[in-house]
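Input (structure):
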């Protein structure tokens, strides 16, 4: 696939890895008692069947739509496309922090719990990377056309940009459903 071999995609993937490392480091220097307590409460809700699937799905959808829309809109305003990189770093930090907290709290079992909970996170990050790729690519093409006084067909490029966004939005909805229903029930099964 042409996109995966591009320098932009590789750079975004590296940025996520840096974010994950920053998440691990930030977990190491934080107060672990509160995080441990929150994680134990979350896992107990799932274990005892008191997990609210509807609220979880709404929260997941809202967050996914929020981040994807921000990345998408930053691509349109090409001056701000670099902010999409910060959102990618943030998602990496969140994943690293979450995995560190789960492994710290549940030790060896935390590896399994972290694996289950990281599936939708990794899927989301991949979707955000693709979206950021198109955001940055759109910005670079616009900037190059502006610099070289060239005309590009913004209408067709923008329509493709919208189609890509809508396809990735559908994937984010699927990811939210996986996160809310499949991963939570897998956790309930292994707890």
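Output (sequence):
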């Amino acid at each position: 696939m042409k996109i995966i071999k591009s320098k932009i995609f590789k750079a975004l993937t590296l940025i996520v890895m840096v974010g994950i490392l920053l998440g691990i480091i930030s977990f190491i220097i934080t107060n672990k008692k509160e995080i441990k307590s929150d994680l134990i409460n979350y896992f107990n809700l799932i274990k005892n069947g008191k997990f609210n699937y509807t609220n979880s799905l709404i929260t997941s959808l809202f967050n996914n739509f929020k981040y994807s829309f921000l990345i998408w809109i930053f691509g349109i305003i090409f001056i701000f496309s670099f902010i999409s990189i910060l959102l990618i770093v943030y998602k990496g930090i969140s994943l690293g922090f979450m995995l560190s907290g789960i492994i710290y709290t549940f030790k060896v079992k935390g590896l399994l719990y972290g694996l289950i909970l990281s599936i939708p996170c990794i899927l989301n990050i991949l979707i955000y990377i693709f979206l950021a790729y198109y955001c940055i690519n759109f910005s670079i093409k616009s900037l190059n056309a502006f610099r070289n006084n060239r005309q590009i067909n913004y209408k067709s490029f923008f329509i493709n940009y919208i189609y890509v966004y809508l396809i990735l939005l559908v994937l984010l909805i699927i990811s939210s459903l996986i996160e809310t229903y499949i991963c939570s029930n897998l956790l309930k099964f292994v707890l």
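Notes: The chain has one domain: 2-190. Residues 2-190 form one domain.
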